[in-house]
Amino acid sequence: MTLNKRAANAYRNVEVASAVPYADSIQLIQMLFDGLISSLSDAEGHFERNDIKGKNASIGRANKIIIGLQSALDFEKGKELSQNLSDLYDYCIRRLLKANIRNDVEGIVEVKGLMNEIRSAWNMVPELLEDPNISVAS
To answer: Engineering a disulfide at 28: which of 6, 7, 45, 82 sits with its beta carbon 3.0 to 4.6 angstroms away?
Structure first.
């Protein structure tokens, strides 16, 4: 399965499908990260308002997105990078579960920071692909 198909499936699996038919694989991953950061921000707000139901829903959505991102990894091409990202995603899922159970907003803040770093890297990919001085591994 190609990255584009895996990313589209992951995106569809987290019920955020408005722009999927028109997006390439990089855009799909970027949209997943945008949805993830939005869900984590929502969860922070629900913590502050002591909205248990909203907190659970936001953390659940964030976990679905992380699982979607994890399922889009290409271990054949990505090898070590894919494994490292998979391990990071596993950690984030566990961290969010613990944060939810213990009402620990710091867990959400930590995961949001980690995912923002990965998101920033993905946001640089289109520029890197356009740079003629950078070779793309095939």
So the answer is: 7
**Does 128 fall in a domain?**
no
Whether 51 maps to a domain, the answer reads yes
Task: Assess contact for 30 and 123: CB atoms under 8 A.
Answer: yes
Show pLDDT as tens, one digit a residue, over the chain (138 residues).
555 556 555 545 554 444 444 457 888 899 999 999 999 999 999 999 999 999 999 999 999 999 999 998 999 988 999 999 999 999 999 999 999 999 999 999 999 999 999 999 988 887 777 766 655 544
How far is 12 from 102, CA to CA, in rounded Å? 30
Judge contact between 110 and 91, C-beta under 8 A.
Answer: no
Question: What is the pTM for the complete model shown?
Answer: 0.77
Q: Structurally, how many domains does the chain consist of?
A: 1
Q: Look up the CATH number of the domain holding residue 82.
A: 1.20.120.340
58-70 burial, b at 16+ Cβ within 10 Å, e below that, comes to bbebbbbbbbbbb
Q: Under a CB-based contact definition with an 8 Å cutoff, are residues 17 and 82 in contact?
A: no
47 neighbors 108 (Cβ within 8 angstroms): yes
